[in-house]
Amino acid sequence: MKTLDKKLDNLRRNPDANDFIIADAKDADMAWGIAAPGRPYPDDGRDRFYSMPEFLDQMREMVASGYIDILLASNSAMSVLAHRDQLFADSPVTPAIRANDTTDVWISRAANYRDLPSRPFRSSNLHEAQYGSLTAPSDGEPVVNLGLYSITFNNDLDADYNSLTAFKEFRTDAAACGFEYFLEVFAPNVEDCSIAPENIPAFVNDSLVRALAGVGRAHWPKFLKIPYFGPKPMEELAAYDSDLIVGILGGGSGTTYDAFKQLSEAQKYGARVALYGRKIKDAEHPLSMVKYLRAIVDGNITAEEAVKAYHGDLQKLAIAPKRDLQHDSELTATELSYAR
Description:
This is Deoxyribose-phosphate aldolase/phospho-2-dehydro-3-deoxyheptonate aldolase. The chain is α/β, with parallel strands linked by helices.
């Protein structure tokens, strides 16, 4: 059994359990284009981004590490890792694909889609994700059977109506395929959403649970993923219904302490899942970063201690930190939408 299934089963039987799920989000090619894999660090002097083969190697390394429960990637990447290479056949890690790519995650280096109200869209085909081909027979167990479905509500009637209509269509498609999903809800991606900043957490929580009220529980998401707005909104959502297992997204890169403190605080107030993308990808040494994310949620180290230990690892690896220890131990503001 995959560690994800074990932990979800235990959390549903015992909501007070301390099981914690860590996912590495390597689906950036569905958002950022050429820039998706990030730049080499330390800088190799070639003014380039990692290639996709290099990015795939980073995914293989992360799966082999034993630190994560889920690897989230594009359907394209999973056609290589899961279908061609069968990377997950004997692994405790669960493969997942980004099942939709709403317009607020269309982040070309030159475009401005992300500044307009989110519109629903799906590049991925669920049958292709499951069996590696649009035409493959659907006999046998699917190789990939989990996906991230994302909604961004903007307090815009037409845009939000279209997003909910698309979600309904996705659920019908997923049920027909026997495909499972987890649900992500972002903060509004437009600045003028007519909601005061202090009311955004309530708007996201209300929009999320209202969207699920018309869904039979057999087709509820396996877990949720939202921005971490702070203790009260997290406690409110985590306490709302024990069938909803709540997780957080990472947001922008920030400092190392941003990542570690956010994780420890979110866990304290009810989160049981963390899905980090840029906070892992942009770290000086992603494997060391995730090692300490795991140590924090397992209760083996504090966020403050983890920053110092991480810098100690960088020193042993002869990797120059992007910030000195003092500055990397500071909290900085990180944005709550995918695009920022």
